[in-house]
Amino acid sequence: MKREAPAAARNRQPILEVLRTCLPASGDVLEIASGTGEHAVHFAAALPGLTFQPSDPDPGARASIDAWVAELGLANVRPAITLDASAERWPLEKADAVLCSNMIHIAPWQAAVGLVSGAARLLTEGGVLFLYGPYHRDGRPTAPSNEAFDQDLRRRNPAWGIRHLEDVAAMATDQGFAAPQIVEMPANNLSLIFRRRARIAT
Fold first, then answer.
1. CA 52 to CA 76: how far, in whole Å?
2. Phi, psi values for residue 118, rounded to 5°
């Protein structure tokens, strides 16, 4: 039942090195669109003080995640849950960090909106929203390969496509996050680290 994704095998260690700099030493981490589960188990094995909650709307993906966890015997990964990022309500009430890799360009923009607003509901002050993937920056692709990838995505589904970093950052600001820390990653990807600002009492 385990699935494998070559991209996950390539990028999981570079992502982990960034996560080491921004995640708390302990707490609960929700991963959105966990896919095969390879990210979740890699991060959980390296960060035993954290408890990971993987999620995915696809039952096959959830089965793969649970199979990886069972094979590796990881006690700090909970069973995968069903979660649609665009839903108005999520099956969790709080988290210390929310992670999402390589999702918002292969989903409608509403999924990105739901992801950011959902993370804003769950996180308390200082909580981390971590996004990884390709982005356009300053109104243009960051590399010719990203431009070709964006065109391919839009041919496959007009609602898909590489998002503009500035649009994502503006949306996050509107939802109560500080401006992102931006980390250049291999293969023309970026890591965006958003921290939840204090909630304003009303």
1. 6
2. -65, -45
